[in-house]
Amino acid sequence: MNQKHPTLSILAKTYLLALSIFTIFRVLLFLTEKYRLTGKQVKIKDILAAFGMGFRFDLSLASYVLILPALLLFVWEIGMPHRRFIPKLVFWLVFVLFCVSFFISAADIPYFHHFFSHFSVGAFAWMDNPEVVTSMIFTDTSFYKYFGLFFLVLLIFYRLLKRIFAQANPVARKNKKTLFLRAIISLLLLFLGLRGSVGERPLLVRDAYISNDVFLNELGENPPYFFLRSYLDQVETGEKPLHFMDNAQAFSLVQKYLGMDTVAYEIPTGRAIQPDSVNPNKPNVVIILMESLSTAKMGRYGNPHELTPFLDSLSYRSYYFDHLYSAGEHTFNGIFGTLFSHPSIYRMHPLKDVKAYDGMPHVMRKLGYKTLFFTTHSEKFDNIYGFLINNDFERIYSMKDYPKEEIKTTFGVPDDYLFRYAMPILDSLQKKNQPFFATLLTTSDHLPFYLPDYFKPKSKVKEWQMTQYADWSIQQFFEMAKQKPWFDNTIFVLLGDHGAPMDVKYDISLNYHHIPMIIYAPKFVQAKQVSKIAGQIDCFPTIMGITNQPYINTTLGIDLRKQDRPYIFINGDDKLAVLDTSFLLIQKQDKSVGLYKYPKEDHTNYAEQYPEKVQDMLQYMNANLQTYYYINRNANQLQLK
């Protein structure tokens, strides 16, 4: 057969080789992440169905890779059998394309472990800082085994592919019609494999969702296919404006949700906030944005590993929100949501596009506060400097300001050093009777990990050790701050920049979004647990309410002490969600909807049973997102002076 039909043999064997390698990667992903399975609810047939669906996606991806090489090989076999450069060219084309696919499959395993999402175009959001990304990868030894796996696969694939293409030596053919017919049939089969379906439509990412178990649905996808789809979705999104509903309708609904009686400003959400009595002694405000702090890490939510003893204790002595959710899954979402009170939409990176907003730094600076931002790492990371300096932060302290000997990883200095560094700066402002608004962004609970020798963790698990260290660092900060004359006149706000996908029950991980918000300011607000639904975007207006200072709120956030919201909306990069204390609604980019009773961990989709609830939740989310999108597109023109 090899001599009679070399192209068919090459294609068939290359298919089998590629599918085998994709299956190996899927088995490894399953073995490393199988702890995410929802226990007794998962049956063997569900696992086999996920692998079966994965095979369909693998077949589709392999068809994408091979359809052009197949065409070239058939042209060579039928019309130019003596042109030896053609099979050589095809060999390298196939090798390179599959190498890229295998690299994505290898990188997907550690990426999935951290984000509970396949490797997507969103991973390149940091590529404007390649030195940071490169250092982060190569200083974390946990990545080395995946590099080794990739190079081993590369070597094996090269040798086997070389053997397969060694048979590309056809003789001149007389019956060209038969060869041509065979080529047409083969290419049609390849096209069918590319579609992944014999039905009316091609295989789509959503077809992987065949189970109530979220991990098995993710297992059924092919990482290179998912990456390609995410890229195409981003290109499509970037080429045309997003549209959730008509602007006028969205503005009217949002103004109703915000309780606005009149519209006094050009910006549709603008409303003047006048406290009953203005505090002449302006309190300082210190916000600590804590890396990856999910409520699932806290003892008060049932975590048994004593990861956050100080934060647990502090939360019981503070004005505490226990049903609050982050805007997105990334630090830039957390910065933007907390300080500027706006949501996130898909993979839009609000800090990359430098625009001016009437956020908290703008308001505080107008009130006479000194505005400072402290980060452990480079100020170029996520374009923090470019965005924040254009949005009324007067000084940004970053890795360039710290002694070289204190810089331990690509993400700069450890958390406790960041706090020690900030203390004398805040002291100097107090001595000048200068009120300050300071934001400190921690990073230690993020790869690559660095644990100082002087901290002795209780846990033996590295990830848990880092959370314990981050918690201890916060404790050190408070112990230092208590000795300062400015302590009593300061509002301390602690919240996660986002959470962590520790226990995933639905297509959007609630642990990735459910974060604590602790407001410690005994002089200004009494300790209390607040269980109303809330968002990270409500931080700014709530803090402004506690300061008793007048300002104009142009955001989608509310003062949680005085207002309620029926729902909060969150962003999962390729999905959106909206929830209250009873229901979680998830909408994918194809507009398919799932409605779940998440407090009961119920995986039943109640969308058809509660159509009015679905409509109400979607209307609330879409009105807010459309309003934000309008503000984002016109930010520089709408900013108040």
Description:
By secondary structure, this protein is α/β, with parallel strands linked by helices. The protein has 2 domains: 6-237, no CATH class; 287-561, Alkaline Phosphatase, subunit A. Helices cover 44% and strands 11% of the residues. It is built from 18 helices and 15 strands. The chain has helices spanning 6-33, 44-79, 85-115, 130-138, 144-165, 176-195, 214-219, 223-239, 247-257, 309-316, 331-340, 360-366, 384-389, 415-431, 462-481, 539-547, 611-633, 635-638, and strands spanning 271-273, 284-290, 319-325, 370-375, 395-397, 436-441, 490-496, 514-520, 528-530, 534-535, 551-553, 568-571, 575-579, 584-588, 593-596. Strands 2, 3, 4, 5, 6, 7, 8, 9 and 10 form a 9-stranded mixed β-sheet that branches. The protein has a 4-stranded antiparallel β-sheet with strand order 12-13-14-15, covered by helices on one side. It has a two-stranded antiparallel ribbon with strand order 1-11. Helix 13 links the parallel strand 4 and strand 5 (395-397). Helix 1 (6-33) packs antiparallel against helix 5 (144-165), helix 2 (44-79) runs antiparallel to helix 3 (85-115) and helix 14 runs parallel beside helix 15. The longest helix has 36 residues, at 44-79. The radius of gyration is 28 Å and the shape is globular. The mean pLDDT is 90.
Ends: how far apart?
78 Å
The CATH class assignment of the largest domain is Alpha Beta
Helix content: 40-55%
The tally of domains stands at 2
Low-confidence stretches: none
β-strand amount: 5-15%
How would you sum up the major sheet? 9 strands, mixed
Structural class by SSE content? alpha/beta
Task: Using the 3D structure, state the CATH architecture of the largest domain.
Answer: 3-Layer(aba) Sandwich
- Number of β-strand runs: 15
Mean pLDDT: 90
Number of helices: 18
Radius of gyration: 28 Å
The CATH topology of the largest domain is given as: Alkaline Phosphatase, subunit A
Overall shape: it is: globular
Name given to the CATH homologous superfamily of the largest domain: Alkaline Phosphatase, subunit A
What oligomeric assembly is this protein in?
Answer: single chain
